[in-house]
Design brief:
Largest sheet: 2 strands, antiparallel
Strand content: under 5%
Shape: elongated
Distance between the termini: 68 Å
Number of helices: 3
Helix content: over 70%
Radius of gyration: 37 Å
Order of helices and strands: HEEHH
Strand order of the largest sheet: 1-2
Length: 133
């Protein structure tokens, strides 16, 4: 199972690396050649703006914070902790019911034990053969 996760992780890193290389390649062609223009929603994207880059960097930082810190904590405390509490309560109730059952049925168990000891057949003792002279 660990190798499968390692393989998926390496594959994901490869995809991220290829997308970064592709992005730099597109940016290089857009900014180095005057005849290439990229139009997104009717707006031409030809000249980089520092404000756009800074906004994208802040957005990526917030996204990383949410994905790597907030989401695991929410899953831990909103899903894991209630499941742990419910499992603990159910386990405690099972132990309580088993204890009550042992106390309630202990007289019957004692009677059954005494009857078993009285009515069982004693095993024949195996004697060692006499040594030959």
């Amino acid at each position: 199972m660990r190798t499968l996760f390692k393989a998926f992780f390496i594959l994901a890193l490869g995809v991220v690396l290829l997308s970064v290389i592709g992005g730099f390649s597109v940016a290089h062609h857009v900014f180095s050649e005057p005849g290439v223009h990229i139009v997104v929603n009717g707006d031409e994207w030809s000249d980089p703006d520092v404000g756009d880059f800074l906004g994208a960097l802040i957005g990526l930082g917030v996204m990383g914070l949410v994905l790597f810190i907030v989401l695991p904590l929410v899953l831990l405390f909103a899903v894991g902790l209630p499941l742990l509490i419910v499992g603990g309560v159910i386990g405690f109730l099972v132990l309580v019911f088993c204890g009550v059952g042992a106390v309630v049925f202990s007289p019957a168990l004692l009677v059954i034990l005494v009857l078993w000891l009285l009515l069982r057949r004693p095993k024949a003792r195996v004697t060692a053969p006499a040594p030959r002279p």
